[in-house]
Each structure stands twice: as structure tokens, then as C-alpha cells.
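Hello, quick one for you while I still have it in my head. A protein chain has come my way and I'm curious about its shape. Can you walk me through what the C-alpha cells say about the fold? No rush at all, and the record is pasted right below.
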Amino acid sequence: MPEHINLPELSTDKDFDGESFSAIYTTTVTVSGGVAGHGRASGRARSADGVLDLDLRMPAELGGDGQGTNPEQLFAAGFAACFHGALSLVARQAALDPAVIFVEATVAFGRDPGDGGYLLRIDLVVKWPGISPEVAAPLIEKATSLCPYAKMAGEGTPTTITLAPHTGPSQ
């Protein structure tokens, strides 16, 4: 028998009217460069609580050995899990069983024709056997408006990049 897991008690209503962002959960993951001094090619990703601790490697398609996970896989997993959670919440509100729902996220890493840099493309596919498109569409739309990954992908997300204060010897 599977273990019991408590579901989150998050509201699906647009019921927050604060003047600024209000964090509900915060996590920190640190990436080091490994033997190549390159986080993407030979790095290690570790969460502050130690629950996530894994090797990062370049996929073979980008010249790596493909022997570890990569940022695109982690992003796809996060996006699919978050969207699945949002869709599960709205399915339950509609008295539908979300147990049969699967969300497949495909993340493509490629060149940005706009500036010559790099860009991600994301494709989500919802697999929901037994549900008609007419029933699923409004629920998927509501999940899209609730899922922060979908919002980030569609609208961007506030980001700050700073240099930590120097604490060691000069290089």
C-alpha cells in the first residue's frame, strides 16, 4: 500500500492582494564547477538542505559524456511537476480524479536568432485519458494561470544577479 502523502493546502483563487511578492517557500541550490571548473560540464548541484545532491554533465548532443543530469532536464522536471500540481488542484475542484494525469515537458536548448545567444523552448503535453478536450481546456487554462513556471515562461520572472562579498584571498 502506498504511503499517505499530505496534499498542499494552496488556494487556487486569486485571493492575494498584497503590494509586493510574498514568499511561501524558499530554497537554495549551489552549483560548483567540478574538475573542469564548469558547472554545466562537470559540476555538482546541492541544495542547502542536502536533499538534492547530484552531478551535472553536458548532454552528448552538446559534446559532453551525458553521464549525469543537466540543467534542461532539471528545468523540465520542475516545470512538469509544478504544472501537474496546479492541474491536480483544479481537477480536484472539478470533482475529477487527477491520478491519471501525466504532464510531459520537453525543453530544447538552442540558439537565439534575436541576439545570437542561447534560448530555451518549452513544450508541455498533458496526457489525461478519458477527459474530453472541452472539459480539459478550461482546467488547463486555469492551471496555466496558477503555475509559476508557466507564468515565468510566458511573462518572465523577476531576477537579480549579484556578486557575493569577497571573503577570501585575491586571485
About this structure: The chain has a mean pLDDT of 91. The beta strands are 29-32, 44-47, 53-55, 102-111, 118-127. The first helix runs from residue 39 to 42.
